[in-house]
Write a structure and sequence with these properties.
Blueprint lengths: L1 H19 L2 H25 L5 E2 L2 E2 H21 L1 H5 L1 H7 L1 H6 L5 H7 L7 H18 L5 H26 L2 H4 L5 H12 L8 H10 L4 H11 L4 H28 L6
Length: 262
């Protein structure tokens, strides 16, 4: 474990050195999502001028949820997304040959080898929105709730990682899976709204089959004290199944992988 921590520190250090060489690009990456969030907030602020709640969320609870989604997505975009979205190009361009020769777990190396710290700005904006929404909604925060929210945030991130990883490694068989990033952002458009917004059929599909709605639901509802035992259990079980599936599928993919030079 110490060895992997040391390796990951090296990944982060090299990424920071690279990003600081192009500071303007660093900030531009972050501003795009922040502008989108601002437009979204204005939209819902106007809606809440005419109604009291949406799917059981009042205005400030909704803002709290949006801030939490923004923060989780930004963390994912910093540490995981750049690596997975580039996996199809590694497979088709032969770069995977080099990575598989490394004396380290290949899935670890592929998933965490780099980062994009431009999205840190979005995480900060998300935290600010969480504080703003939480204070105005009168949310009672205690250590137990925060610990539960952190734990289920990690479980949700694991689900999100597993979904994108499984999509990306399809390029081993299909030779072209650059649709992974587009599909991810389409799924994210569902994730950024509470599960109670959707009808029964869509809620079942995006909770139990393609579990994108579980990514933020459990941690947010823990803090809002709206969570059900079924949601907590489903998040853990489905997260375990999807992550285990990603490990299994990767091993199968490596066995079927043929070098780009072969």
């Amino acid at each position: 474990m110490k060895r992997y921590v040391r390796i990951y520190k090296g990944f982060i250090r090299n990424t920071l050195i690279r990003d600081m060489e192009f500071r303007m690009n660093f900030f531009i990456w972050g501003m795009a999502m922040t502008v989108e969030l601002g437009i979204n907030l204005l939209f819902f602020n106007n809606i809440y001028g005419n109604i009291d709640d949406i799917a059981g969320y009042d205005k400030y609870e909704w803002f709290f949820y949006l801030g939490f989604v923004q923060m989780m997505l930004a963390v994912f975009m910093v540490f995981i997304f750049p690596n997975l979205v580039g996996l199809p190009w590694l497979i088709n361009g032969g770069g995977l040959d080099y990575l598989l020769l490394k004396p380290v777990n290949s899935q670890f190396f592929i998933s965490l080898r780099g980062a994009n710290f431009g999205y840190v700005i979005n995480a900060v904006v998300g935290v600010m929105l969480i504080i703003y929404g939480g204070v105005n909604a009168g949310i009672d925060i205690n250590i137990q709730n925060v610990a539960g929210a952190v734990f289920y945030s990690l479980a949700g991130t694991l689900i999100l990682y597993s979904i994108l990883f499984n999509i990306s490694i399809l390029s081993v068989w299909f030779k072209k899976a650059d649709f992974a990033s587009t599909l991810f952002f389409n799924l994210w458009s569902f994730m950024r709204y509470p599960s109670t917004v959707y009808g029964n059929m869509m809620r079942v599909v995006f909770t139990y089959i393609l579990p994108i709605l579980l990514v933020c639901t459990a941690p947010v509802e823990i803090l809002l004290k709206k969570v059900s035992t079924a949601t907590l259990v489903a998040t853990l079980l489905i997260g375990f199944v999807w992550f285990g599936g990603s490990i299994f599928l990767w091993k199968v993919a490596v066995k079927h992988y043929s070098s780009a030079s072969s």
